[in-house]
Specification:
There is one protein chain. The protein is α/β, with parallel strands linked by helices. 23% of the residues lie in helices and 19% in strands. Strands 1, 2, 3, 4, 5 and 11 form a 6-stranded mixed sheet that branches. It starts with 29 loop residues before the first strand and ends in a 6-residue tail after the last helix. 41% of the residues are buried.
Length: 261
């Protein structure tokens, strides 16, 4: 499984930052952490009008998501959903990522244009990974539907590739985000959930770290350029080409996530 090709100067990595080296005359590269689709990071860079050569992207571990900014390995990280960590500062909302169910191609819901969260209570979902805060995971995978049905969180998730493999082989359902269509391999479908609000996307950093001027400037430009109505993280392909997710996700990307929670 691979991400879409990254813009020149940005090389995503699951373990180490890109080897891109900024000009010696310029400021140090901004070390930016992301999880899932790198296209969300690309959108934020475009919002800020930032030179891709000045950013080192690293994919952080979802089981220990805040380690990088807490130990100084990352300057900033992309966060989704509400964050309430006393030692972390969070930007204003920069975009929204629509909700979706990740299912195998043979799953009964795979061919649907969209699904309800009420329907997903019929299937086993995923438990909270590692040290991910409970209150965050409760937004990712709600413990109950709006009608009061219990969502059974039985499967363990450690990273996106293993989650995708379990979904494909075991019939599990992962309640997640439309942006995962960017990294979905063949045999996986990403079906929009029409009755959950989109996840807000923002940047977070350590309150203990003094932001260098070029990082503070990056944040300020991204916040100033973010649409007030909350644009989706990704648009449908201009040429209408198919993705692993199929037409439902292409439609959701074009129209979902345009409003707040």
């Amino acid at each position: 499984m691979t991400d879409r090709p990254a813009p020149s100067g940005i090389t995503p990595s699951s373990t180490t930052p890109s080897s891109t080296t900024p000009s010696p005359a310029g400021p140090p590269a901004i070390r930016l952490g992301y999880h899932g689709s790198v296209e969300v990071a690309h959108r934020i860079l475009r919002l800020a009008g930032h030179d891709p050569a000045g950013v080192l992207l690293s994919q952080y571990d979802v089981a220990d998501p805040f380690r990088g900014v807490r130990d100084g390995g990352l300057d900033l990280m992309i966060v989704k959903f509400r964050l309430d960590e006393p030692d972390l500062a969070v930007s204003r909302v920069l975009a929204y990522d629509a909700r979706a169910a990740v299912v195998g191609a043979g799953h009964p819901l795979a061919g649907r244009e969209s699904v309800s969260i009420e329907e997903l209570a019929d299937y086993d979902a995923f438990e909270r990974p590692g040290t991910m805060p409970d209150y965050v995971w409760d937004e990712v995978v709600p413990p109950r539907t709006p009608a009061g049905r219990t969502i059974h969180r039985r499967h363990r998730v450690t990273d996106v590739p293993r989650m995708m493999a379990l979904v494909a082989k075991e019939g599990a359902v992962h309640i997640s985000l439309v942006s995962l269509a960017d990294v979905a391999p063949p045999g996986i479908r990403v079906v929009p959930i029409h009755d959950l609000p989109p996840a807000p996307v923002a940047l977070a950093w350590s309150r203990d770290a003094a932001l260098a001027p070029h990082i503070a400037g990056f944040l300020a430009r991204a916040e100033a350029a973010a649409p007030a109505d909350g644009a989706p993280c990704a648009a449908a392909p201009a040429d209408g080409t198919a993705t692993a997710a199929g037409p439902a996700v292409r439609a959701a990307r074009a129209g979902a996530g345009g409003t707040g929670r």
